[in-house]
Amino acid sequence: MTRVRAVAFDVDGVLTDGAVWWGPDGQEWKRFCFRDIMGVSLARKAGLTLALISGEDSPLVDRFAVKMGIADVYKGCKDKAAALREFAAAHDLGLEEVAFMGDDVNDVPALQISGYPASPRDGHPAARGVAALVTEASGGRGAVRELLDRLLADG
Q: In the chain, where are the structural domains located?
């Protein structure tokens, strides 16, 4: 396996448990896991380049990116494979050097071109079916940390 130098994540169902809470005033809330947050922090410190690729155009994605120091953010993305190609090219990486974690059918094209495709345990069967790694943890409950721990251990 080629050394992974960058990781891109879908957000909903990967960094979150896939649920959304809507408040009475139209506020949208998402829940993130501190194990995943620590994993992202450790990955950044280890020198991995990170990106968020989300089908949603939520300000919560931006807020997470700012908190975690992730500069590459693709929101409202309908073609995640194109976004993954753009991310790799922007950092002069081959796709074989980029891991991608996704959980649903709209992530499959990006998973198929990624050098190291991963899906959470509770991902859709189509995503799990093309993943080199299906985590023991569910999305939003440590799946990201599990992937990053493995990548950092393989260093």
A: 6-154
